[in-house]
Amino acid sequence: MYPFIRLFKDMARARRAPRMGFFDTHISHHLCMPWDLDMWNELNNGRTLTLYDLGRIPMAERMGLLDVLKRERWGLTVAGSVVRYRRRVRGFDRIEMQTRVLGWDRRFTYIEQSMWNARDECTSQLVVRTALTDRNGIVTTDRVATAIGVDMSEAPVLPDWVARWIEAEDMRPWPPHRTVPA
């Protein structure tokens, strides 16, 4: 089940927190609960992706983006992600999550997130390609910039490793190969 109670708690905190700039880092703290675990008593890899929502959505609130989404009747979607797992997170471990915008292109915004354990070791890192949508599809980032009042005319150069991931995604065939049963 989706962690709605934790999301509501984190959103309440975000509403009370100071507004943040577009390139500031949102920091949140989480506890790995028993329902987040797999059969090896470790944070489930799929649940990790769900918990990363608890960093992105409150960050969007602190930036004022959620007000814009309501006003414009836009949606927020994930259009791709790449994750690296490096350290175990076990039941009742405390983690710090860091979430920040890396940059954007014409259609997508790229966000980096990472989880850190009590020993200050990075347990996982996620880069997510996000988009805002309306009834016609993806809202271009220049329209988003105008709506939120951010000068996006000088997009920061994305790190080389992110640019190469984007290139790899562009080469990936879609739809994927499907084997038809005989």
TrEMBL record:
<protein>
    <recommendedName>
        <fullName>Thioeseterase</fullName>
    </recommendedName>
</protein>
<dbReference type="InterPro" id="IPR051490">
    <property type="entry name" value="THEM6_lcsJ_thioesterase"/>
</dbReference>
<dbReference type="Pfam" id="PF13279">
    <property type="entry name" value="4HBT_2"/>
</dbReference>
<dbReference type="InterPro" id="IPR029069">
    <property type="entry name" value="HotDog_dom_sf"/>
</dbReference>
